[in-house]
Amino acid sequence: MVWVMALAAHAAITNVSSTYSECEYPYVQPFNEKVMVVWSEKEGGIFNIFSRIYSGGKWGGKVRAFGSSMHSQFPNLAIGPGGVIHMTWMEGISRSNREIYHATWLNGSWSGGTRIHASTWNSCWPRIGVENNGTSSVIWCSELYPFNNSHYNIVGKRNPKGWSGGVATVSFTPETISIHPSLAVQANTSHACWMDGEEGSWIIAYARSSGSGWESPVVVSGRDSGWWPGIAVDSNGLAHIMYSTLRRAPYYTRRLEDGSWTQPVPVPGAAGHQRDFVFLEMDAQDVLHASWRQTINGNHNIVYASATAQGDWSKPGYVSDGVECRTPVSRPDNLGFVHIVWWDEAVNHGDVFYTRVESGGGGTSYLAPVAAFTPDPAAGPPPLTVRFDASASSDEDGSITAYNWDFGDGTTGVGIRSTHKYLQRGEYRVVLQVTDNDGLTGSAATVVAVSDPPVARFVMTPEVGVAPLEVHFDASASYDPDGKILSYSWDFGDNSSARGLTQDHVYEEAGNYTVTLEVVDNYGINALAVRTLQVLRVYPPVNVSYAFRENRNLFSLEYLYEVSWQENPLNRHYGINVTRFHIYRRTRGGEFSLIKSVAANTFSWLDRHLGEEARGDFEYQVAAVDDQGNESAPQMHESFSHPDRKDAINEFFRNGKH
User: Fold this and answer.
1) Residues of the domain holding 557
2) pLDDT of residue 654
3) CA–CA separation, 129 vs 76, rounded Å?
4) What tens digit of pLDDT does each residue of 235-247 get?
5) Are residues 509 and 547 located together in one domain of the fold?
6) I need a surface site. Which of 82, 415, 559, 606 has the fewest CB within 10 A?
């Protein structure tokens, strides 16, 4: 199975150290809406402890916290009452004299480092926690015999009144190798875990102390199964442990109320885990926060995930974008964020990086895939061949690995696309089930109807008429042979539509309109009926003309215009009953007004008894009117109407154009 990991929604990644010197083993501590990061950095061949603080949206300068002529390495932080930050680290020039130190930070500065354990032998990997009463608890790995890797113990020390007390043994008898401890403090109880055994036969062990001494250790993992553990404690005082394994996935277990431990299980979605330190911490809401190293696209990057106190994990998401990232630390604050640091060996010999994620929002949650598909067609008469396409299915936090079809007729299929033939009439419930790379499933279903289609029919009344024309449409003649019609949809052909068994629609303009009725039955099968509607107009008269005349006699002078026209034969052709003609007049350049209405059998008219103003330019239009009162567009002919054009007028009458 190929694992595709989601990118966790994180803030910008910051290179905290920004140096070409070798840096390693960072640690982070959120406090008072600020963040402190510490790490080991080599200067002149010697490792020193450096720190930086993030406050008010920006990073402060890099500060050498502790350093001397000896190596200062493996810093570890914890916060105590009053916001005091405690740090412990290892200091020494060689394995023969490594010692454990402690310091506190308050009001912007570090106290002087205090040696809490002097040894002529090797002491390393200190871990610190602070009890509610302010007492610091520190454990570390201590070499029992100089230069002998086969004898290490985990030891511890508390400072209720200073560091003058003795060292307590935390781990098993001196005959075993106990290394790489982890410490968590809840209330006034310290909880520790560590690797124990020997190469090729490691276990994870656990012990706790309430101040009166450490209880006997117990084994919480199987033989040959644990490295570099992390520990956290919930509000009930129960420990949670996660550790690295050879199985390329970190394992998780937790303590129960009766003192037993759950069976260790791999953290879901952590395939590709690289054996390295894992980090685990519990916040005030009993949410676990974990980070570890994992191979992603060929590089080693840092992964973050969260879990409930019952061990229900979110999907891991990577937070780094490096090459050789190591030893992550992920610590929650009380503002809803988790602060994460690590170092990348491939950047400037090892630089320290920081980012943050929303609490509990590491990778995306484990989400089931979403199944979606389309049948084409979804209904039709038998035999019906349907093509099914599930390419719209999705998996937000991974990938879909299997598509399984149930065609509803006792047959099945597989694949993102499939084709099936239905031979019998009926309704078939088709189910698609998809499976993702996490083994989660999702399903979707639809019904394929194998049925005879409906029959679409309609009448329109009238089928021809003059605009504006109101038409009544009736689809009552439509039917479905094996079901019922559920919807009637009309397209009137003039960019308008409607729904319903019957409709009335008005056509404002003349023209030929294609009217379409679509009916859909209870199986979703459709049918169409198409008819053409002819919407006419009243056609204007033709050969409209007019001419100016003077009617002179011995005693009078009359000015007049003769207006003439001819019937348009298209009106008779289309059955349009013209009942009269309207005559309009205007002075040239003015507005036309109706001055006369004449019967349909009249084709000329004299506009008489005009005054001297008639010698000006008059213009005329003639329109035809049908028996419904519909009027054609008025028709006008440019005539010889000016009195200076008498020769042209006489020629007009001689040619019979009037």
Assistant:
1) 542-654
2) 42
3) 9
4) 999 999 999 887 6
5) no
6) 82
